[in-house]
Amino acid sequence: MVILIVFSMSGCFDSIEADEMAFVVSLGIDKGSSGNLILTFLVAVPISIGVGGEIGEVEKSTTIITVEAPTINGAVSIVNTLLSKRISFSHAKLVLISKELAQEGVEKYINALIRFREFRPTMFIAISRDKAEEFLKAVKPVLEINPAKFFEMFMVSYKHTGYSPRSELETFYLKMECTCNQPVAALLDINDVSDSSEFERILSEAEIDEDSTIEGDYKAGEIPIISDTKSSNMGLAVFRGDKMVGEMDGREALSYLMVTGDLGLVYYSLPDPEEGRKYMPGDFTGTEIEKNYISLRLGMARKPSIKVKIKDDRPIISVSVFLEGDILSVDSDQDYSVGEELTKLENYASEHIRKNIYEFLVKTRDEFKSDICATGKPVKKTFLYWDDWVAFKWMDKYEKAEFNVDVKVLIRRSGIMTKNIPMSLLKGKDK
Amino acid sequence: MENNVLKWLKNIFLFSPKEPKYRFVLDDANNQDDNGGTDTSRQAKKDTEAKNGTQPKDEDKVSGRKAKNGKRTVVDGVKQPIPINEMNEKKREKKDSSANALFIDTSINVNLEYIKQRYSADINGDFVIREFKVIVMNKDYSVFICFFDGLVDTIVVNMSIIQPLMTLSTLPVNTKDQTVRDVVYNHLIPQSQIKICRTYQEVVDEVNFGGLGIFIDGLDVAFACDVKGWEHRNVEQPTSELNIRGPKESFNEINRKNSALIRKIIKDENLIVEDILVGERSKTPCSMVYIKNLANDSLVREVRRRIKSIKIAYLRDAGELEQFLEDSPYLPAPQMLLTERPDRVASYLSEGRVGIIVHGSPFAIVVPVTFFNLIHSPEDYYLRYPYATFLRLIRILGILFTLLLPSFYLAVTNYHHEMLPTDLLLAIASAREKVPFPTVISIFIMEIAFELIREAGIRIPGPIGPTLSIVGALILGQAAVAANLVSPILIIVVALTAIGSFAIPDFSLGYSFRALRFIYIILASFAGLLGISLGIFIHLLVLVHAKSFGVPFMVPFAPKTSRTRTNAILKTPLWKEEDRPDFINPKDIKQQAHISRGWLKRRGGANADETEDKDR
Amino acid sequence: MQMKQKIKIGNFEALCLLINMFCSKLILDFPRYVSEDGGTASWLLVLLISIVVFVVFTFLARIYKKFSDKDILDVAKLAFGEPGKIIAGLLFMLQFLYLDTIVVREFAEDIKVISLTTTPISIIISLFCIGMLTGAFLGIETLCRINALAVPVLSAAFIFILLLSIPRFDSSKIAPWLGPGPAVLIKKAIPNISAYSELTTLLFIIPYLNDKGNYVSIGKYAILASGFFFTVGTLTYTLVYQYPMSTEFFLPLYQLARSIAIGRFLSRIEAIFILVWASSAFLYLSSGLYFVTYMFKKSFGLQTRKPLLIPFTILIFSIAMIPENLYSALRLKMGYYRNYAWIITIIVPLFLVTAASVRAKIERRNKSDEAKSQ
């Protein structure tokens, strides 16, 4: 009894009510002056989200605070002098580091994030092409009231688009500290297009290959799309060690997902295999060109296998990717869903994707010199002693690597129709 | 005064008196030596101790209910003085025994005077004395009968006692060579229960309980007949253990009718109903019920010893008897099962347990009992196996909710915010914005309000009582939310807790959990999940340490006693229950054959282990 | 002529007691310092030490057969008389006291880091001490029963956490397969045998077991089961967090549990972890305190054990408050204890048992000589 009294008098040190804390949903880190950081806090306002609020006041569900300080926790102290509630990171969903800061090295920030207990390892990390502050200011979730939910769902869009990588804090840290892997992060930016007349300009500025899928060829911020929510997540940022060395667009992110085995179920369009039905290269000034495409939905049939052979101190990396999918739409009259045509389509798709993956791998080797697909793992398994592996220096050997890519696409189904009788057959050609 | 403080300090720091507390151990049925302590062996030990002059000094510290030695001890050749309360007790015993020893006189006038004086017949309004004459072997004898009006069935008195005595002697009957007493006893009183009494005390005891005393002039014995017939409740539906399937009878307040209800179910001649009187003024008849060739002898002996050694003035109810018999009165869980249903008592008796029926109480006590028996409901046996298992799991969930839900909510929202999903946390935070009290205080307010409503709901008269309490609770909760006194999520938590406590079948256990959840709330409020785990640890320790009549309370999980499936949490199908619970150590452990469904084995068909015959 | 209740401990209960004593260090920091020693082959190291301890225990059980109803202090008495018993008792008591204080300090520090951050550590340690005191007060029988109740649940929760980490496994993280090399592994195996230093509890509960000779199978099963848990735990940890990163985290299994995310909703299950862990801590500490007081009582021949509880609790509390920071607390354990504890666990009982059997043989020979000479 005495003990109980003593304990209740000692107070509840750690007891914090749920309404005494301000929950930061997203944190943005920019470069400030003279070694400082500019930190942007996107704080959730519970009243307008929860039970007591009214639906429709979506803008008021978050509030933004920007502050300049040398460290993250220093910034937290400054913000706490301003806010009535205590800042808490335990529900932070996204950490956004600006590109210029990432190019100098993110190791110290990642260490701070990992060490502090409040940041959860499943938090997302992304690189902002512009300033992080601008991005967070422009974020306006339209379909949700809860901004945390918005970020949670926004950053896992790779599962059904394939145009961004999986970039959680812990996976980033694991890859950063690995001896045979390099980290990647998602690429975010504001897409500030106000009118569809700007689309032509964007399309002409994007690096579009002749033979590629058009929809993946953009990076975040340069997408021909207009919407109320201006945030876009497309492409990936490539790191070597802890420094960012480059960006890749959505198509290359798709190849990255295919090689590492994280692909969900994505839509993939490719031009029609028949010669006469491809789209004709031309200028985009409005001349009518007939282009026929085929649209597939692809997923992984098996995990990709990577085999490495070392020949004369050069690694020969063989990547095998197995995909399966459905036909979603065929533009031309040809029926690709059965027999010989199907095999032709499969081979064409395999070759198409193979070229994508090959170019992606070559780019990582030559332009970025970083092994982001962890192709060194099979090599590591052949070693018995740790010291031998460290002396092998895989990272340097990767720059001399050769690639053999093999893709196999299997089309399983074609929607709810087994065949599509073209209208021209029934009604006669109208030409 | 300082002695008390010193004693208390000693208790705290030394933790135990010199002699360890007596714990009864229930051994195997074949191991019947005095490991449990029979009356005689302990007495023998005490005698030898007294003889050797080494008397345990703190005899009064030994936990009560043991028969006092009553001997004056000799230490260093000097007789020790007896404390005053002991002396008073001795005097009282002497007086009682002297009263007991009075024999019935042959003269009827003396008897009449004695009875009148004993019963204060001139003041006592309902005491009736009827004098008349009886003819036995052609001779006139004076007779008087005495009884309490209202306690006897007057029709039986008239038809079976007075009428035969007055008139039956005229019938010719062979009465050669028989004494008057024999003639009267054998031929003249056609009443089924007659006792021949030699002392006044026996007659008085019988008359006090609805009997009738017959005194005949010239006989030195009296006859006491059992003609009970007072107003009592009928056999109705049980009020606290409702069920859908199964019999719907419940005990009423007369112990003979209660034991009849049990005998109606177990039609076994080995079912023993042993009568013991408890209480000096009330002389409440209690019956110990057990099946002779099943129940462990040492268990029966221990129960009998404990009941017989209770020295109180007035026993009201089975609940009181429970408190006098239990091993640890401070344990936060009951150690005996009180039930209103004869089918439940009968099923426990056939497992080898002992039942105690108390006159005047519609609840019977079943002993020994484990924690898991307390969370069984009789309906588990009457329902099919899958539903019964499912219901058991729901009940356990209810128990966990009752005990832990408010404290868990408190710990998670105050200490471990990162454990909630973000949406839920923001919803809770926004709901809490308008509430002025901290969460702990809100929880306490709502819990105490619910407890008040429950307690008050028992006393609201009429059929609207339960309805009003529930409606009141809902309206109170709604109004509290509207007035921003509590957050709506808290109402849900508290309501779930209350509902969970209704799911506990045993009334007493429900109370214990309802009381304990406040301690858990306090623990959670200052140490979060660590406090809750500390609470669970200490709670489990105390429960595991407890024993109910020698059976550890949390058997069959701690200690593990048998390798077969136990019926503790998940129900075993009825046709698989071949063994009786072995922690009770019955004399015969097999209660069913290995294949209890004989129809399974048929020629040319599926075998009992449900493998198909190859020919089919 | 007091009627003493005989304490009886069942087989399963003793097994669970031992498993809890061994494995509660798994949730503290065992995977981390095994990773430091063994690199990517830390699970091989763990397997090695389990096999070594198993073999040593079989040998010990064989020569212990003559004394199969005495505990180790009685054997010490047979070997060297009263002073031997007192010295052996003090030695084991010191080991358990040291263990208890370090573990209580470590658990309190861990709780401070992961949830109750501002509460002063004295309050957390005193909470643990209250639980410890209650457990040790109620006796070893109750403790064993609660172990029998709790350990299956705790191990199921532990396996659940491990199973949920399977999607994050990557078999290349335990390559290179032999890590720093077999020579280094064998050299580092010796101080790591102290992971099984709680084996002495088995030698103390021998008189209470149901059948004489049961302790052999209990010990073997306990070592096997704990070896399994250790190996699986270390393997999982290394498969998710590769070496050298695996030596960085303060609480390895906590980190493992934190990152489990299945969908949006089922992602914060470390609540289970805190409950599991606190229960394991209470059980471990109460058993430790019970054995400390029991050894003290037995080696000095005292009558009652219970009055010793409060002084020892206060002692443990005070000693646990001595290290100034986490680093010095850890260094106590990793530096000193691990290097020497295996001596106390393995060498001392072997020595005592051999001495006792030698002396028994000498006495028997003397007796037969006397009988012949008569």
Word description of this protein:
The complex is a heterotrimer of chains A (431), B (616) and C (374). Chain A has helices at residues 2-9, 46-49, 72-82, 99-104, 107-115, 132-138, 147-154, 158-161, 169-176, 199-205, 250-260, 339-368, 377-380, 386-392, 394-397, 423-427, and strands spanning 21-31, 37-44, 62-69, 86-88, 94-98, 124-128, 184-190, 231-240, 243-248, 265-271, 293-300, 305-311, 314-330, 402-413. Chain A is an alpha/beta fold and 431 residues long. In chain A, the strands form 2 sheets. In chain A, strands 1, 2, 3, 4, 5, 6, 7, 8 and 9 form a 9-stranded mixed β-sheet that branches. The longest helix of chain A has 30 residues, at 339-368. The mean pLDDT of chain A is 82. Chain B is α+β, with helices and mostly antiparallel strands. Chain B has 19 helices and 14 strands. Chain C has a single domain (11-359), classed as Amino acid/polyamine transporter I, CATH 1.20.1740.10. In chain C, helix 1 runs parallel beside helix 9 (214-240) and helix 5 crosses helix 11. Chains in contact: A-B, A-C, B-C. Chain B binds chain C through residues 13-16, 19-20, 22-23, 25, 37, 45, 48-49, 412, 415-416, 418-421, 527-534, 536-538, 540-542, 544-545, 552, 554, 557-560, and chain C through 1-5, 10, 12-13, 111, 115-116, 119, 124, 127, 130-131, 134-135, 137-139, 142-146, 148-150, 264-265, 267-268, 270-271, 274-275, 278-279, 282-283, 304, 306-307, 309-310.
